[in-house]
Design a protein that fits this description.
single chain; 71 residues; mainly alpha; 2 helices; 0% strand
Length: 71
């Protein structure tokens, strides 16, 4: 039987992996956004930047949750 602490650590580990995936997706979206802007697709670029802002805000909240679980 696992302790609550083990469950918290496992949850924090999984959330950390998801956060890494989120950072990778943000990097890819940023590349596509820059490519769209260079090609003159300003609206597409703006939509991608909005998505990046959402990812960034959520990453901050996920990081705070991970830190709390690891206390």
């Amino acid at each position: 039987m696992t302790s609550d602490n083990d469950a918290f650590v496992s949850t924090a580990d999984v959330l950390t992996l998801l956060l890494y995936n989120q950072h990778a997706l943000a990097a890819a979206i940023e590349e596509v956004a820059l490519w769209a802007k260079a090609g003159g697709s300003i609206e597409t670029h703006e939509n991608a930047v909005t998505a990046l802002e959402t990812l960034d805000a959520n990453a901050s909240a996920i990081t705070a949750g991970i830190l709390k679980l690891r206390q």
